[in-house]
Amino acid sequence: MITFNLKFFLFALVLFIIEVLIALFVHDSIIRPYVGDFLVVILIYCGVRTFLKASPLKVAVGVLLFSYLIETLQYFSIVEKLGLAQNVLAKTVMGYGFDWLDILAYTLGIVTVLIVERLGRDDTSKGYA
Please, what is the Cα angle at 46 between 112 and 73, to 5 degrees? Predict the structure, then answer.
């Protein structure tokens, strides 16, 4: 069902700003590649939940499969095959190298989403939220 959820919109906005700041100012071997990937699946999840009222598990699985697809396309060097190797935006959005640790980061990000969703649901059912 199509909807607008302000809470998820604000989460997505904050995560987007964090991702942009990481991309612009962090040039290390841990935060940019792995924390960025961990956060990006949460960002995508929040973006989808902003406009789609659906089961958290279904959205989470969809986001995770989408992330795996993008990583698989990186394995096949899709950016180069599309002739976009010199395009900084394409390389930033699509990525440019397959890494099993990226798969792990995506998975941990979605597991975190599901844990937070579960804890939030439990608090609501107890009258805490």
Answer: 80
Would you state the structure tokens that stand for residue 119, as one six-digit string?
């804890």
36 half-sphere exposure, CB direction, 13 A CA radius: 19
Spatial CA neighbour of 20 closest among 48, 6, 45, 40: 40
Q: Is there a contact between 84 and 91 (Cβ–Cβ < 8 Å)?
A: yes
Tokens 């002739």 belong to which residue? 83
CA–CA distance, 94 with 85 (Å, rounded to integer): 11
Which residues, in sequence order, are bridge partners of residue 2? 52
- Ranges of each domain in the chain: 6-69+102-125
23-27: list long-range contacts, CB under 8 Å, 24+ apart: 23/92
Amino acid identity at 36 = G
DSSP E strand stretches across the chain: none
Average pLDDT over residues 84-109: 90
pLDDT digits (tens, 9 = 90+) for 59-93: 999 999 999 999 999 999 999 999 998 998 888 78
